[in-house]
Every structure is written in C-alpha cells, then in structure tokens.
Specification:
single chain; 409 residues; alpha/beta; eight-stranded parallel β-sheet; 14 helices; 15 strands; binds zinc ion
C-alpha cells in the first residue's frame, strides 16, 4: 500500500467542509491538500463526500461466523461465549480464506485499518500470520493486537478445555512468540492483555512492558460484564480499572475496550491517564451488555474509538452513532457527544489507538480516504452530523488505502 497519484474530491472533510479538493499522494502518504482548485486532467474524480478512512479499533474476524447463528434460544453474555467458543477452531488455510472475506467486507464499508484482537494461538503464530496475509491480499491496514490469555478467571482457576488454545502457558512464552512477528508495510504488531480475568497482575506487567519497549499500542477488554467487576473486587479488593492503575498499566497508549461497568473513581482514573475507550455498540447490544458512561469518560479526558468486535454488523458509522444513541436510551437525554467528536472517534482517534498516522486529510498523513455518496440523494452541503447520522457503510463508493484504490463502485 505505497501508491501515488492525484484525487479530486467534490467535497472533503478537512476538519471542516471544503470543496474542489485536490489530494496529491506520493509514496503512500498525502503530499498536499488544496481546496477550491479545478481538477487536473490526471486526477481521479471523487463525486460525493470524501473523508478520512475509517478505523475499526476492535475486531475478532472469526466471530463473523456467528452472524445470524446465535439470535434464537436464550441466555446471557456467558451463554453466548460458550457458543462462540464453538467457532474458534481453525486451520491456517481456512482462517486465511475467511479473513479475506471479512476484510473485503470491511474495505467496502470504508474501513482502511482494522485492529484484530487476536487470541487464537493454538497454531502458534500461524493464525495471526493468516490474518496478516489476508489483510495484505485485500489491501487493508492491520494492527495485529496479539492477546495474552493465561487463566480461566481471577481466582486463578484453570482454563476450560475450549480456552486452552488461547494460552501460551505464561507471559514470557507469550512475549517470545510475539517477538517472532514483525511490523511491515500496512502491518503493525501490538499487544493485548485479554482481560483482568484472563491475565494475572504480574503477567499484565510483562505484556505492558513488552508493548512500551516497542512503542506498540496496548489493548485490554475492560469491565464488559458486572461479573468481572464483582470477581475483581472479591479477589483483588478493587475494581478492574483500579487494578490496572495499581499495576501501572494505565496510560495514553492503552485502549480499554467496552469499559462499561465503571464507578466514578474508575472514570476519573481512565480520564486522568488519557486512556482511549473503544465502544462496540452493535456487539454490546447483541450481547445484552449495559451502556458505559461514555460521555463522562470523554469529559474526564478519554479519547473514544469504535470497533465492530463480533462483526455481526460491519459499519463504523453505525458504531459511531450507536455510541451516542445507546446512551440516549440509557440516560433519557439527547446528543451526549457532538457529531464531529463521533466522526473523530471513527477516524483519527481510532487510527491512533491502532498505531497509524492516519485519520486526517492533511500533508504527511498516510493516504487513507474514502468517499460516500447517495445515488438517491440530492447534492447537499456535507456536515459531520449527516455523515454520522445520515449515512452508512452502504454509501461508500470509493476507498483508497496508502494511495492505492481498493474499492471503486
Ligand atoms: Zn472483543
């Protein structure tokens, strides 16, 4: 994904609305952005609204197989998890094929970078490499967020048989395995502590140190379920967020996924440490998760990002508006976040959480941009509000990753 060329956008989002924008790309990065200029003969014309590429900050590609498969019967998050484990067994060749389909769907939805929170380690690095190869084949940027997963719960209980392939045995073995993976064109290796359930405090510190020595992003599933908080309080004497504070894990390089069951002190800690919080509205709805205090987190200093998580839905604009709409139902109020902030969650802040210099249309940034258009629509002035609340993945007509066109409808 190291392309060059010129694109001329009818309207583009440069942090504000601009018209007749010429984007020049060299070596995969934006060289210049000029507005109010005529299209040169050698520029690709982009009709509609051109915005930075969307960042999917939290995905488990394999879970797309559950789409439409787990919506009958009954149960809670833990029952869903049992059924999800039934879809976790892959050969590298099959996972490569599956991931190509998932990544193609993401590109067509305008996602130019995906964070794969990866804990299927039964074949060593082979399934992670299958994800990397599939991303390269389809032309999407990937941050492989390799997750350490060591135990069945906070009380130190053993892994269930279905969880055994997720484990490396100990954190040092995890680090040795991940050291065999390397960054490349369109590829970043990052680290995750799967959750406070699955990783003991000492091992958490090993994972965080590994990430910080390499300046790699660090992610964690945090407080998605009340049961995790109760168990943490019982065993560690504090909440999961406070445990992370105690162990030195909180920081601006950390992305906390879900972050739903938080008390006021947790919110203050995450905000003061400028942790990014990744909300996954469509999956959280599907799983019967509660709604997190996202407005309070944003106000206390957290950046926000969004993720498709289980991939039952692949639409980052739906995730962005869902972040606000779900809180409206929980709080009985409207507009908890401004549309421009939701758009930034789906672009610049998500890209930063994945370790990419992208998400803004300006010189020096990676040349990831997408175009949205509505054939049935009239020409109208672009607003962040209409992008987030009036458009969806289906309206994406053109996608450029690193100056290479990967979707053109
Ligand atoms: Zn997840």
């Amino acid at each position: 994904m190291i392309g060059s060329g010129k694109w001329h956008a009818e309207q583009a989002w440069l942090g504000r609305r601009a018209e007749n924008v010429l984007i020049e790309v060299e070596g995969g990065r934006i060289k210049s952005v000029e507005e109010d200029v005529f299209a040169p003969a050698d520029a690709v014309a982009l009709k509609g609204w051109t915005i930075p590429g969307l960042a999917n900050a939290h995905s488990h590609a394999f879970q797309r197989l559950l789409r439409g498969e787990v919506e009958s019967g009954a149960g809670d998050f833990w029952a869903w998890r049992e059924r999800m484990y039934g879809f976790a067994d892959w050969t590298p060749a099959d996972y490569f094929k599956h991931a190509r389909l998932v990544f193609r769907e993401m590109l067509e939805a305008g996602i130019t970078a995906v964070g794969e929170f990866h804990y299927l380690h039964g074949h060593g690095n082979e399934l992670g490499e299958a994800l990397i190869d599939a991303a390269a084949q389809e032309g999407i940027r990937i941050t492989l967020i390799d997750a350490c997963y060591l135990r069945g719960g906070l009380d130190g209980r053993e892994l269930e048989p279905e969880q055994l392939p997720f484990s490396d045995g100990d954190a040092d073995a995890w680090a040795r395995r991940v050291d065999d993976l390397s960054d490349g064109d369109g590829v970043r290796i990052a680290a995750a502590i799967h959750s406070v359930r699955a990783v003991d405090p000492e091992s958490m510190r090993v994972v965080a140190t590994w990430a910080r020595e390499r300046q790699a992003p660090l992610h964690i599933h945090l407080a998605e379920q009340a049961g995790e908080v109760d168990e943490c309080v019982a065993v560690e004497g504090c909440t999961p967020a406070q445990l992370l504070e105690r162990e030195g894990i909180l920081g601006p390089d950390l992305t906390a996924v879900h972050a739903i069951h938080l008390d006021e002190r947790d919110v203050g800690l995450l905000g003061a440490n400028h942790v990014t919080v990744c909300a996954c509205a469509t999956t959280e709805r599907d799983l019967g998760d509660n709604v997190g205090p996202l407005q309070a987190l944003a106000r206390s200093g957290c950046a926000l990002a969004v993720g498709s998580d289980s991939n039952a839905v692949v639409d980052m604009l739906e995730e962005a508006r869902g972040l606000d709409l779900d809180q409206r139902r929980a709080l009985g109020r409207r507009v908890l976040h401004q549309p421009v902030d939701l758009l930034r969650a789906a672009t610049a802040d998500g890209m930063r959480a994945l370790g990419w210099e992208a998400g803004e249309l300006k010189a020096g940034m990676l040349a990831d941009f997408i175009t949205l258009d509505q054939s049935r629509g009239l020409w109208r002035e672009m607003t962040p509000s209409y992008i987030v609340y009036g458009m969806s993945a289906r309206d994406v007509t053109n996608v450029v990753v690193g100056g290479v066109t990967v979707v053109s409808k």
